[in-house]
TrEMBL record:
Keywords: DNA integration, DNA recombination, DNA-binding
UniProt domain Core-binding (CB): residue ranges: 4-96
Similarity field: Belongs to the 'phage' integrase family.
Name listed for the protein in its UniProt record: Integrase/recombinase
Record GO biological process: DNA integration; DNA recombination
Pfam families hit by this protein: Phage_int_SAM_1 (PF02899), Phage_integrase (PF00589)
Gene source species: Syntrophomonas wolfei subsp. wolfei (strain DSM 2245B / Goettingen)
Domain of life: Bacteria
Tyr recombinase domain mapped to chain residues: 120-307
Keyword Membrane: no
Task performed by this protein: Site-specific tyrosine recombinase, which acts by catalyzing the cutting and rejoining of the recombining DNA molecules.
GO molecular-function terms, A-Z: DNA binding
InterPro entries: CB, DNA_brk_join_enz, Integrase-like_cat_sf, Integrase_catalytic, Integrase_recombinase_N, Integrase_SAM-like_N, Tyrosine_recombinase_XerCD
Length: 337
């Protein structure tokens, strides 16, 4: 007889589907796990015992109540609320594929609409602010060289913080064509070109610390890999320094983070008229729809992008984009209205 307990389906969803079939990385699995931990917390607060819960106990009404609780009691933003819903939709999509007898319940939950959230252009550092930040560390000290290498590589490669701290020395190529080889979301690898000056800074850092190819590129004081918290600590240190030195030239209201560096690099590339598809590949996005948000940071860039997109509709350039890219571009244009 088939086990219809909630725990049975949740365990199989994580082990058989997310990890084995989809190959999701640790961070993605952790974010999905957090949604279920929160759901279980909600159910327990409602007097339910997890060990006795059946799959059928998680109805559309239950999910809607959970989402409302997450917003009001846990103070989740609308974006976070929608993320929780996306995880649950994914789970019930898996259940539907393995146990069609629950199709009515699964379809009801999958059809729950996401809340509309106001789309805002990503915040970013101006080029002058970025220059102030990258020049803030003391390049004459060993620690300063290390911090400069971390900050410069974060910006120039626009890599995610997890991609940065996963790097080994062997992942960096220094020479005529400087580049880094990173493992991104979904365990996908990509090669990122970096500026020659960034390569020189990394070379100086590697030599200063006597690092070998098989070693971790950035470590903490205990010798382990640098952590997310460690990167945040370094960034906050220089934010305070810049606020003191350049109160009128640095926006102290910005929350300085690795992702802000990524947003800044992407926005600067778009502002320099780099093709949006090249930016997509540089950032490691699977779709240009994710990347196009950077166009909205600068209205003039958006106008030029629309003109360029329109010019590509003539017959001479009909084969310029693949079918998928054409569909993505149409979806992108819809978001501009």
């Amino acid at each position: 007889m088939k086990d219809n307990s909630l725990s049975y389906y949740v365990q199989n969803y994580f082990l058989s589907y997310l990890i084995s079939q989809r190959g999701y990385g640790n961070n993605t699995v952790a974010s999905y796990r957090d949604t279920f931990k929160l759901l279980f917390m909600f159910l327990e607060s409602d007097g339910k015992k997890l060990s006795k819960l059946k799959l059928t106990d998680i109805s559309q009404t239950c999910v809607l109540q959970f989402l409302e609780w997450a917003e009001t009691e846990r103070h989740n933003s609308v974006s976070t609320r929608n993320l929780r819903l996306t995880v649950l939709k994914s789970f019930f999509g898996y259940v539907l594929s393995t146990s069609p007898e629950f199709s009515g319940q699964c379809t009801d939950i999958i059809n729950i609409p996401a809340k509309r959230v106001e789309k805002k252009p990503p915040l970013y550092l101006t080029e002058s602010e970025t220059k102030l930040l990258l020049n803030a560390p003391d390049r004459n000290s060993r620690e300063g060289i290390r911090h400069m290498a971390i900050l410069t590589l974060l910006y120039d490669s626009a890599c995610r913080v997890q991609e940065l701290i996963n790097l080994n020395v062997a992942d960096v190529t220094i020479g005529r064509c400087c580049k880094v080889f990173v493992k991104g979301k979904g365990s996908k690898y990509r090669e990122i070109p970096i500026f020659g000056e960034t390569g020189k800074i990394l070379e100086r850092y590697i030599n200063a610390y006597g690092l070998k190819p098989g070693e971790v590129l950035f470590t903490n004081r205990s010798g382990g890999r640098l952590t997310r918290a460690g990167v945040s600590y370094i960034m906050n240190k220089y934010k305070k320094i810049l606020q003191e030195r350049y109160a009128n030239r640095f926006n102290s209201n910005l929350s300085l983070s690795p992702h802000l560096m990524r947003h800044s690099k992407a926005t600067h590339l778009v502002n320099e008229n780099v093709n949006i598809y090249n930016v997509r590949d540089f950032l490691g996005h699977t779709s240009v729809i994710t990347t196009q948000v950077y166009l909205t940071s600068n209205p003039e860039v958006t106008r030029k992008a629309i003109e360029k997109a329109s010019s590509k509709t003539v017959s001479e350039s009909n084969d310029y984009y693949s079918l998928q890219e054409k569909e993505d571009l149409l979806a992108f244009l819809e978001t501009l209205i």
